[in-house]
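Students often ask what a 'structure token' actually looks like in practice. Rather than answer in the abstract, let us consider NSE3 homolog, SMC5-SMC6 complex component, a protein of 268 residues. Its sequence is given first.
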Amino acid sequence: MAGRRLPAAEIWGRFNGCWRHWMSQRKRSRGSGLTQGDDEDFSVVPTQSPSQVQRNLESRSQEEINRKVTELVQFLLVKDQKKIPIKRVDILKKVIREYKDVYSEIVNRAGRTLQQVFGLQMVEIDTKHHIYILTSTLPRVEGENLKQDIQTAKLGLLIVILSFIFMKGNSAKDSAVWEFLRRLRVHPGEKHEVFGDVKKLVMEEFVRQKYLEITPIPLTDPPEFNFQWGPRAAKETSKKDILSFVAKMQKKEPSFWISQYNEAKANT
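Now compare that with the structural description of the same chain:
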């Protein structure tokens, strides 16, 4: 409805109705590198033994090390607020700099501070390019656990998309996702009062934040894409929790969807 802000409860209600429609249609049809140049000098951390690290630490003052730990914690928290994946090369270039010889100690101390003070854990999601995210170590709330700001509109929309992808067999065409959102009155080609440019939000912001992965489908004209969960989604929620969310919306037991139920159990 143009010009009216949709509350979360109404989005869930429409999600529920559209989900039932999609499931009924489904029954009838049966019957998702590091840059070169300046970054290159910062892309490698020398492998050092504990004794080497200790000697390097002794050549630095504790005040210097503590300052770097504080800088790194602040850098990571700012990145996490924007949900931007964190590259090791950026940590080295923008924070560690000439302290590369004690990189491991600074990162370990920063990690302990994040966990003990903020309840966050630094997790590597790309071992080839050394890309990290921060995930919450606080207890999850069943069915609604995609970070602490789960009730925000954007993450509410994200849960709907993740649910749709999972129930479609872990992969969904972009056309199917857009059609489903249209049934929620969230139109990808129109400016939304809450979400803004919906297509940009989904295909750029959620992808950049590693919640979604989008893969081009070969030999399609116009181009088509497949949507899948990204590594951040897999770290911050689970298929079991998403299935519980869908089950609550549908007022059914999770075991009603046999295939998804078995997959969720296997991934627990």
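One point worth highlighting: Confidence is low (pLDDT under 50) at residues 1-8, 32-40, 141-151. Ask yourself how you might have guessed this from the sequence alone, and why that guess would often be unreliable.
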